[in-house]
């Protein structure tokens, strides 16, 4: 099930939505696809940016900027009131970044996919990007990562990702901001094999890009961002994928992989990515940050309900907060960003409009206890 292009988005740590269409995950649990640097895992939001105008009403870019100026600080207050510690922004916006100044929230800042070619080919453009979106805010915004592109591997833009990362890193270092690390976000479309998780491997189409990117990240101890969605695997074939396995509430192991047992699909997807990284030459210490995960609360799709969305997101927050890690990385805390902060009425009709934790008026769609990410 594809995802439409967002209007404005952000992710909350335990995340906002992606910029490119989302491929379906494999349906069967037998083929399931799908940190902040501290000892425990955590959850953030992938959606700190405010919602678009009400359905039926158009809104210019200038109108959206005014809307953020009106609502932005309220969104920051909302994040802090809900114990959300980190946000992911899918594209740079100086108005949003200004509102984040002094908030203490960690920020993962993305580039536009359409800027990748120029970022890759023109170091001066990468320098101007850093000068416009990072340098003016660096003293008051806690930048964690810059993400060069979102879900473009494999695809026509894939060859631009690594050179864009390299140019952005050089620009950050030249600006005295070398502590802001550069990475990219991928979907499970990069995997050619994912079952069992230990057999995870990048596809032939993805490997030419992923191999050098893995080397780049490993040499800098920078994590790969991966978007993980058990929901799409479940909804593609609900008769084959146990709902409890997808919701992280199975009472027993659904998948056995050698000596490892998997009671939930979230861990199976993450470990398939870890296995693929190792096959591509990554050291065991290279980390994966789950840069998006979520479950729709409506829209008519299989399993899309408020109850299931609340169960999935709260279970993910508790799971990553426990610090248990995954079967392949026991005791290694996982960081995850929940998608998304707000429901999005400018997405295609259906489940795509219903991944938000909040309505546009900032009322809860369902309650998430983000304190569980640090107190489990």
Strand content: 15-25%
The fold-level CATH name is TIM Barrel
User: Cα-atom Rg, whole angstroms?
Assistant: 19 Å
Count of alpha/pi helices: 11
Order of helices and strands: EEHEHEHHEHEEEHEHHEEHEHEH
Descriptive terms for the model:
11 helices; glycosidase; hydrolase; disordered N terminus; Glyco_hydro_17; TIM Barrel; 32% helix; alpha/beta; globular; nine-stranded mixed β-barrel; 15% strand; 376 residues; glucan endo-1,3-beta-D-glucosidase activity; single chain; two-stranded antiparallel ribbon
List the helices and strands and how they pair.
Layout lengths: L9 E4 L28 E5 L14 H21 L4 E4 L4 H7 L5 E5 L5 H6 L1 H11 L8 E9 L7 H17 L6 E6 L4 E3 L7 E2 L4 H14 L3 E4 L2 H7 L6 H4 L8 E3 L2 E3 L2 H15 L8 E6 L12 H16 L13 E4 L33 H4 L1
Parallel strand pairs: 2-13, 3-4, 4-5, 5-6, 6-9, 9-12, 12-13
Antiparallel strand pairs: 1-2, 1-3, 7-8, 10-11
Helix pairs in contact: 1-2, 4-5, 5-6
Q: Would you kindly provide a written description of the structure presented here, covering whatever features stand out?
A:
There is one protein chain. With 376 residues, the protein is of the alpha/beta class. The chain has one domain: TIM Barrel, CATH 3.20.20. The chain is 32% helix and 15% strand. It is built from eleven helices and 13 strands. It has helices spanning 61-81, 94-100, 116-121, 123-133, 158-174, 207-220, 230-236, 243-246, 265-279, 306-321, 372-375; strands at 10-13, 42-46, 86-89, 106-110, 142-150, 181-186, 191-193, 201-202, 224-227, 255-257, 260-262, 288-293, 335-338. The strands form three sheets. A nine-stranded mixed beta barrel has the order 1-2-13-12-9-6-5-4-3, surrounded by four helices. β10 and β11 (260-262) form a beta hairpin. α1 (61-81) packs parallel to α2 (94-100), α4 (123-133) packs across α5 (158-174) and α5 (158-174) runs parallel beside α6. The protein is globular and about 55 Å long.
């Amino acid at each position: 099930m594809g995802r439409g292009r967002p209007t404005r988005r952000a992710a909350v740590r335990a995340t906002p939505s992606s910029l490119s269409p989302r491929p379906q995950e494999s349906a069967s649990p037998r083929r399931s696809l799908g940190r902040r640097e501290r000892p425990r895992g955590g959850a953030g939001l992938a959606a700190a940016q405010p919602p678009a105008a009400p359905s039926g009403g158009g809104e210019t870019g200038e109108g959206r900027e005014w809307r953020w100026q009106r609502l932005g600080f309220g969104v920051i207050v909302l994040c802090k009131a809900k114990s959300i510690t980190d946000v992911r922004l899918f594209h740079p916006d100086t108005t949003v970044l200004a509102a984040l100044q002094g908030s203490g929230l960690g920020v993962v800042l993305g580039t536009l996919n359409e800027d990748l070619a120029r970022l890759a080919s023109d170091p001066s453009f990468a320098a101007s990007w850093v000068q416009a979106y990072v340098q003016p805010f660096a003293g008051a915004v806690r930048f964690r990562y810059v993400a060069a592109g979102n879900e473009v591997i494999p695809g026509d833009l894939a060859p631009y990702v690594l050179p864009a990362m390299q140019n952005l890193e050089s620009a950050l270092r030249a600006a005295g901001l070398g502590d802001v690390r550069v990475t990219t976000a991928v979907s499970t479309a990069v995997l050619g094999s994912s079952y069992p998780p230990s057999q995870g491997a990048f596809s032939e189409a993805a490997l030419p890009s992923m191999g050098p990117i893995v080397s780049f990240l490993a040499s800098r101890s920078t994590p790969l961002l991966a978007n993980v969605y058990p929901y799409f695997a479940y909804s593609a074939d609900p008769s084959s994928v146990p709902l409890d396995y997808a919701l992280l509430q199975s009472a027993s192991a659904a998948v056995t992989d050698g000596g490892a047992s998997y009671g939930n699909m979230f861990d199976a997807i993450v470990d398939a990515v870890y296995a693929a990284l190792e096959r591509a030459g990554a050291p065991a210490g290279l980390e994966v940050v789950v840069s998006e995960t979520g479950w729709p609360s409506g829209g008519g799709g299989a399993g899309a309900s408020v109850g299931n969305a609340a169960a999935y997101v709260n279970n993910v927050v508790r799971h990553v907060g426990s610090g248990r890690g995954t079967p392949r990385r026991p005791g290694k805390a996982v960081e995850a960003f929940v998608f998304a902060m707000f429901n999005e009425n400018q997405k295609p009709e259906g489940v795509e409009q219903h991944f938000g934790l909040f309505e546009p008026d900032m009322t809860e769609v369902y309650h998430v206890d983000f304190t569980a990410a640090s107190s489990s």
